[in-house]
Amino acid sequence: MAQAYDVVVIGAGPGGYIAAIRAAQLGMNVACIEGWRNESGELSLGGTCLNVGCIPSKALLASSEAYELVRESYDAHGIGVDGLRLDIGKMQARKAGIVKKMTKGIEFLFRKNKVTWLKGFGRFVGYEDDAYRIEVADEEADGAPAQLVDAKHVIIATGSKPRALPGLEVDNRIVCDNVGALAMTEVPARLGVIGAGVIGLELGSVWRRLGAEVTVLEALPTFLAAADEGVRKEAWKQFKAQGLRIELDARIAGVEVGDSGARVRYSIGEGEPQTLDCDRLIVSVGRVPNTEGLGLDAIDLAVDERGFVPVDEHCRTKAPNVWAIGDVVRGPMLAHKAEDEGVMVAERIAGQDPHIDYGMIPWVIYTSPEIAWVGRTEEQLKKEGRAFKAGQFPFSANGRALGTGHSAGFVKVLADAATDEVLGVHIVSGAASELIAEATLAMEFRASAEDIGRVSHPHPSMSEALREASLAATDKRSLNA
Ligand code: FAD
Ligand code: AMP
Q1: Ligand 1 centre and the CA of 90: distance in Å?
Q2: 459 is catalytic
Q3: DSSP 8-state assignment for residue 43
Q4: What is the percentage of the chain residues whose pLDDT exceeds 90?
Q5: Within a domain: 224
């Protein structure tokens, strides 16, 4: 007899593990299937985000930022450092320790909430007596037989995997995806990055700060096309000043991989053929939904033309009581979006009626300076024909930013011309990832720019720049600029 559950979640990334915990909190009998193995071959919860995405990248970004600060900025504080050394092994061990703490933390949370971890990969095998039958198998576990489980509700949370460039094999030695790019044990002298999206810019920044000469080749003629134009221009200026070489409108003709490096043949637009020789090459040209081996045929579910599992605004698929969340469905490939969907689906299964406002999901790029935004850009508002007011405040006029050495960048607030409702907030700054949360909260509560401007903000703090930009948007009168 197959073990029966109210809810089976397939995948334990930020979407799946959060959905499992929330469903268990709401009184359901829940299992979560996950067969991810880490570099040491141990089974590990947490998916891409915790194992090879958000968490390890932020650990290395912090280490590399610390190194660059000591090298470039300590002198201005009157601190001299002799004999600065770099121990990549130790840096990687710190990263691994953080990943382990976080992934083990999910095991603890599963135990605490009585979520059963089914170790292996799940595959739909059929539907009978109002229940979905799923086979769980772990090919890497010696002799462990596959098991069958039944579920009234299934949440597909199988995430995404790196998109490959046709004809270019990732070996995670010379040619790396995110896994290899996060695991390098020495700083490459010359690093090539194909794709100037979030992942390419963050991982390129890590290795540039540690001393690599980094060249990023981007297919689009526009840099960071999704961001507000003012933000794009400021980020471009800052990255160039740091020595990051970014080539736009780059067309890759081919890549030759040798024992110690790679040669990328490309042209800029219709220009002359060029070559880029590098010791390591990161391929970061986006991610694709992961439905491999999931057995969707067995429940008559088809993916769309881009490989995503089609869902409605509440993450319901066409198959009754089958839901899908996170990177495997439409919408931004962001961990917090996956988590929000996990909570929404668990609560819907429990009979509640939550929803997600997809227009209020914040974006962050953890470069230096960080880039973050929520809501609409100026371009989007112009396209929509919506009359708006813009207020901007530079961090160079913020005392806290000057003190901490984060005086580059600005906050821009966009508000409706008639109602003053905040429609978008765009930040380039060392603290953007934290500051954007206040803007998101304000927008969720449909705050006006004046509301933010009237709220007391701690002094001195970088959050004052959001207040000042809001004052500038509401009636063009910042107090400190
Ligand atoms: P995933 O995290 O991909 O997890 C899916 C899980 O499903 C995996 O563990 C997989 O093993 C499992 N699985 C797949 N098939 C099966 C099966 N058949 N049976 C059982 N299990 C299965 N996002 C942010 O918001 N902020 C960031 O700073 C950020 N940084 C990133 C940095 C990098 C380098 C990368 C690569 C991504 C980053 N992301 C970031 C994106 C973020 O990691 C994803 O949006 C997020 O992990 C999606 O969560 P998910 O639960 O949908 O899928
Ligand atoms: P993201 O979707 O944020 O991971 O970003 C991926 C980036 O890679 C985007 O900016 C794409 O335009 C870029 N990209 C996709 N394909 C190619 C390619 N063949 N060559 C260079 N850049 C690419």
Answers
A1: 26
A2: yes
A3: B
A4: 96
A5: yes
